[in-house]
Amino acid sequence: MNAPVAEIYEHWLRFEELPNFIRSLGSVQRIDDTHFSFSTLRKGKEERGVIEVIRQVPERTVAWRTISDGVLRLGVVSFEPLSDTATEITLKLRSAFDPSISGQNADEYLLNFKQLIENRQR
User: What residues have CB less than 8 Å from 96, skipping those under 6 apart?
Assistant: First the structure.
């Protein structure tokens, strides 16, 4: 991605903006520094849950878990500076109970995130 790692990291931490690049999310609202409520549509049904940030390494990694309807999902995003103006992002999503979470979802979210960041820079 054509942006410095600090900028990319700060944008990712704005969980309230997740629906801007994870289109299935309806809304995300901050509860406190590490918890966010969310709503989403899955298979035509509204689902509500909580996102909990469980690990942060500034400008390197953010890990979280979501709990909704008894389903636990995990996510980790890593940031690797390639230069002063370029960053590589790796996103891993996992759900033992929801096979609809896949690498294809991660690729789509990262592409949408890239477009969002690069459009803001113009």
Answer: 72
Amino acid identity, position 112: N
Domain ranges of the chain: 5-121
pTM attached to this predicted model:
0.85
- Token reading at 110: 């990262």
Say which DSSP state 37 is in.
Answer: E
Q: Indicate if the pLDDT at residue 102 is higher than 80.
A: no
70's CB contacts (< 8 A; 6+ apart) are 97
CATH 2.115.10.20 fits 5-121, yes or no: no
What is the enclosing helix (H) or strand (E) of 121? helix 103-121
